[in-house]
Design a protein that fits this description.
The complex is a heterodimer of chains A (537) and B (493). In chain A, 74% of the residues lie in helices and 3% in strands. By secondary structure, chain A is mostly helical. In chain A, a hairpin with a 4-residue loop joins strand 1 and strand 2. Chain A starts with a helix and ends with a helix. In chain B, 75% of the residues lie in helices and 1% in strands. In chain B, a hairpin with a 4-residue loop joins strand 1 and strand 2. In chain B, helix 4 packs across helix 20 and helix 13 runs antiparallel to helix 14. Classes of the chains: A mainly alpha (537), B mainly alpha (493).
Chain lengths: 537, 493
């Protein structure tokens, strides 16, 4: 029930909001709810068994039984942290846009809540059609979020975002349908869209032949996810969408929505099509490393802070692609870690850029200068986040990037060599921006707005501090975090080619064990009592 | 010659009889009142009563689990007949409700309008039931003649008259082509009954070109009615010029029954279930052209109605994909299912779309441009909401019914080996997403002034809401709907 509650409570609450008239109340209630939802998601720690690579907290109900479509949700190490990331970032996103979102507040809250439903749903769906429904449905609230509350070119950006993502995913739908028909032979004629059945398939594969079933299907899925990630040639929607989105939209988009793509690779593209994924891994590593360098180079010449952060996203997502397609334990766990890091650090960067934009109404780097003396606390926080973004040791970014590079190095040394340059380039553009914006003489808008105060207020500090804490926590004790996904990652990597996922019957076992334990305890007790009684006699 | 018709035959066509009788009532009342319109609400309630009774009769009297032939083989009754009867009744009611409140059709000639509307529906029913190509022809004529008049009956003076005339000329031409084809088929096979042609189909189709020629002409006639590219040129003009209730009626009703008739013709098995038969190949290309041309042309439209007209052309292409899947060997039932599922889903979404257009029209000669609905979400949040839902469903975004319709068409195509059709369908959907999103952008993301819904369209608004609920509900709970459709097509197996 926990997962279902996590998925649908936001939507139900959002529908319930329609009876409340006052915008301020709506906003506060939504925040309270989102925090409650986060607290609820913390129960996952209690219920989830990190030692097991099996699927847990499973709920299975028929939806369209005739075509094998079920409401089938479950969680394992791959999705565990992503669900928590979602529930963690959403309240912070709302908090970050507390004042900047001033029109149609109720609609905004509803969009955010609906978005949370679809995001959590995407990460825990274990039925391909259910996954597709959430994956596609997540476009709608984000589409409205950019289109209604976005910047000046929002209409262009939002339509582009929608069409690009849909263009990829509709071919994935064709792939899902084909897979569903393939399951018929192993299920006695009944088709199924369950991922567990997909994993059991042995899809015909011909080495070095592009037009073989497995390769084509692999690309149907991979392109859909590559657009979402976004991987190099498909990335053009991202800077537009990020720049035009309102701050909360950018935070969610960078923090969670992009992870749907990388998660899709780990959940679908790599385990279902192992041979094809292995054969084409070089191509994805190549576009990954190209994305790392290209994103960094383009970020370097951006005059706009938000655009710079957006291109840094392209660069960081390239690392995640590298890690996943290195297909070894370090690479994949690094990629998974980097997904969280990117959510935290890029989310924080978008927030900070949003905060300063709210005051000065410009994001042009050349308009800034000497912000450090005008807003020291803001500067400190910004620099910390920058350090995380450029993977300085002790921050979370270092752990992820290091593991990815380690994995890449053992998979392909040349690509690893090129990937390392990305670290330097990343430092260049981020530090260059920090230097221009924060140091030097006070100039431009900083002088202009100094009187009104450029320092962060309490609400903004509250929104950003949890992320700062995470940056250090994840950087210092990464094992605490990796522990929860380790078993699943090892299962994915070590069983490449015969990956299986089974449902953990823990509830049944536990209750059985309890019953057995209780029985034996009773017996022991009885025995002791009778023994004692005898002794007394 | 002893000529007797058993009673059971009349029981089977009772839905048509009921609709016909109900159509007479408003007209008779008007005559008895000295040619004065009675209360339009009373007239409307006769239509609703008639349609509900007809649907009820279809469900309770028609044979559910078997295929029976009546009127000496002229009509066939099976699950599909029942299903389509219910859908046609629904369309009739929605069109009648819209017409009562729309300014182009309400007022002084409402009784005549209802008479024509319901008789057109009778023609539709006959077409869906027909097992005889001659009956099909007569049904097309009943349906179309009423439609020509319905289009011309609009209070709007220019566009509707032009549309009626255009539709009449081109429709007459298509009917003639169809009839010409039927003549060839009769000449070669000696019968016009589909089930009897089916017995000899394999032999006939190898016997010479004349039979095939006849079939191709009959198919061209049908393709005209469902606006398959390149026989679609009439559709945008006619759909735009007609009063919106009539547009809604013909964009949905005509398509549903013509596709059913088309399906019955294709089930003849004259192609020997061969996916490489020339006719199947040609139909595949037509489907691709229809999906792509319809979607691309829709992008360029400024008028909302015209955009929906092109979108309806594109949707015909999708149904045609399902129909092609139904003609070849293998799991043809998936094709049948996708056709019936798609036309039903399409009916609900398209009716809803036109209902919204109808709500926005305040005068009889209004043409609602996409520009006009800027900021509609602010003025009429509910209407903007349901319109957005219909558009998303038309675009095939889950979890609406439109998504599952596309899903079943794609799965039928993939299962039957027409992957390339599914790929073109997917490409069409991407193009489609662009223009379906545009009105949403205008409604929600631009704040200028534009039209707003008239307040006196309460019934139409109620119907629109119901259609919106159906769109969402049939998507979320597809299972029972799917089973209904599957039961309906079981007679084709």
């Amino acid at each position: 029930m926990l997962l279902t509650a996590l998925i649908f409570l936001p939507l139900v609450f959002g529908l319930g909001l329609s009876v409340i008239k006052d915008d301020a109340v709506v906003k506060k209630l939504t925040l309270a709810f989102l925090i409650a939802e986060f607290l609820l998601s913390l129960f996952l720690f209690a219920k989830f068994d990190p030692e097991s690579a099996k699927l847990q907290l499973v709920e299975r109900h028929d939806w369209i039984a005739a075509i094998g479509v079920q409401y089938f949700v479950g969680i394992d190490g791959l999705s565990f942290w992503l669900v928590l990331l979602t529930t963690f970032l959403t309240p912070l996103a709302l908090l970050s846009g507390w004042t900047s979102v001033d029109k149609k507040v109720k609609a905004f809250c509803f969009a955010l809540l609906a978005l949370e439903t679809t995001m959590v749903g995407t990460f825990v769906s274990m039925n391909a059609i259910l996954f597709y429904c959430f994956f596609e449905a997540s476009l709608i609230p984000m589409y409205f979020m950019i289109g209604i509350w976005g910047g000046t070119r929002r209409l262009y950006a939002t339509v582009k975002f929608f069409i690009f993502t849909m263009a990829g995913s509709i071919f994935m739908l064709l792939g899902i349908i084909t897979l569903m028909f393939l399951t018929a032979s192993q299920n006695g004629g009944q088709i199924s869209a369950s991922l567990l059945d997909f994993y059991k398939l042995h899809i015909p594969f011909v080495q070095d032949e592009f037009f073989s079933t497995q390769t084509l299907l692999f690309f149907a899925f991979a392109v859909a996810f590559a657009i979402k990630v976004p991987v190099f040639p498909f990335h053009t929607w991202l800077p537009d969408a990020h720049v035009e989105a309102p701050t909360p939209g950018s935070v969610i988009l960078a923090g969670v929505l992009l992870k749907m793509g990388t998660y899709g690779f780990l959940r679908f593209a790599i385990p279902i099509f192992p041979q094809a994924a292995e054969q084409w891994a070089w191509a994805f590593m190549l576009v990954g490393v190209f994305g790392v360098i290209y994103g960094a180079l383009v970020a370097m010449v951006q005059p706009d802070m938000k655009k710079l952060v957006a291109y840094s996203s392209v660069s960081h997502m390239g690392y995640i692609m590298l890690g996943m397609f290195a297909m070894n334990t370090q690479g994949v766990s690094g990629a998974l870690y980097q997904m969280l890091n990117h959510g935290v650090s890029t989310g924080a960067l978008f927030m900070l850029v949003g905060f300063v934009y709210e005051r000065t109404h410009t994001r042009e780097i050349k308009n800034y200068g000497g912000l450090a003396s005008a807003a020291p606390l803001f500067t400190i926080l910004f620099v910390i986040v920058t350090m995380s973004s450029i993977a300085v040791p002790l921050t979370n970014g270092f752990v992820g990037e290091f593991l990815i590079l380690l994995g890449t190095f053992s998979a392909n040394k040349i690509i690893a060599g090129f990937a390392v340059t990305g670290v330097v380039l990343g430092a260049t553009y981020m530090l260059w921006m920090v230097k221009k914006v924060f140091y030097g003489e006070e100039a431009g808008v900083v002088l202009e707005h100094k009187a009104h105060g450029l320092e962060l207020n309490t609400r903004e500090i509250l929104a950003i501090v949890p992320l700062i804490i995470l940056i250090f926590w994840m950087g210092l004790s990464s094992n605490t975090f990796m522990h929860w996904s380790k078993a699943s990652v090892e299962n994915l990597v070590q069983n490449h080619g015969q990956y299986q996922l089974t449902i953990k019957e823990d509830e049944v076992e536990k209750s059985l064990e309890k019953a057995v334990a209780a029985n034996s305890a009773k017996k022991v007790l009885k025995a002791t009592i009778s023994h004692e009684a005898k002794n007394e006699l | 010659m002893n000529f007797s018709i058993p009673l059971v035959d009349f029981v089977c066509i009772s839905p048509a009889i009921i609709l016909f009788l109900a159509s007479l009532i408003p007209l008779t009342v008007k005559v008895l009142r000295g040619n004065k319109e009675q209360n339009s609400f009373a007239s409307l309630s006769w239509v609703v009563l008639g349609a509900v009774a007809a649907a009820f009769a279809a469900i309770s009297f028609l044979p559910k689990h078997s295929t029976t032939y009546h009127f000496s083989n002229a009509l066939v009754f099976d699950g599909v007949s029942i299903f389509v009867t219910v859908v046609v009744c629904l369309i009739t009611v929605v069109a009648a409700v819209m017409a009562r409140e729309n300014n182009a059709t309400n007022g002084r000639q409402y009784s005549e309008f209802l008479f024509l509307l319901m008789n057109s529906a009778v023609g539709m029913l006959l077409m869906a039931w027909s097992n005889d190509l001659i009956v099909t022809f007569i049904a097309i004529e009943i349906m179309s003649l009423c439609l020509y008049l319905l289009v011309a009956l609009s209070h709007e003076e220019k566009l509707s008259k032009e549309a009626a005339f255009k539709y009449f000329i081109l429709g007459g031409f298509a009917s003639a082509v169809f009839l010409y084809g039927v003549a060839f088929i009769y000449g070669m096979s000696g019968t016009t009954y589909l089930n009897m042609i089916a017995v000899r189909a394999a032999e006939l189709s190898t016997g010479g070109y004349l039979f095939k020629l006849g079939l191709i002409m009959a198919i061209v006639g049908l393709c005209f009615k469902i606006a398959i590219v390149p026989f679609h040129a009439w559709a945008p003009d006619v759909y735009e010029g007609s009063p919106t209730p009539v547009t809604a009626f013909m964009a949905t009703g005509v398509k549903v029954v013509t596709f059913v008739a088309f399906l019955r013709v294709m089930k003849l098995d004259f192609l020997g279930h061969d996916p490489n038969a020339p006719l199947v190949v040609i139909l595949q290309w037509l489907a691709v052209f229809t999906m792509i041309a319809g979607n691309i042309a829709a992008i360029m439209q400024q008028s909302l109605k015209r955009m929906l007209a092109y979108s309806s052309i594109a949707h015909s292409g999708y149904v045609l994909v399902g129909l092609i899947a139904a003609t070849v060997a293998g799991e043809a039932w998936r094709g049948d299912l996708s056709v019936i599922f798609y036309v039903t889903a399409y009916t609900i979404m398209t009716l809803g779309g036109f209902c919204v257009v109808c709500l926005l029209e305040s005068r009889e000669n209004d043409i609602i441009l996409i520009d006009d609905i800027k900021g509609l979400a602010k003025r009429n949040p509910l209407i903007a909401g349901v319109f957005a839902l219909f558009l998303l469903s038309l675009a095939g975004i889950p979890p609406t019914v439109g998504f599952f319709a596309k899903f079943f068409v794609f799965s039928a195509a993939i299962k039957q080996g027409f992957v390339w059709l599914a790929v073109w369908g997917a490409i069409g959907s991407i193009i489609g997403a662009y223009y379906y999103l545009r009105p949403i952008v205008y409604m929600y993301m631009k704040d200028e002034d534009g039209v707003s819904a008239s307040e006196h369209y309460q019934l139409t608004f109620g119907v629109t809401t119901l259609l919106a609920i159906l769109t969402l509900l049939l998507g979320l709970m597809t299972q029972p709907f799917y089973l209904q459709v599957k039961a309906a097509i079981s007679s084709f197996l």
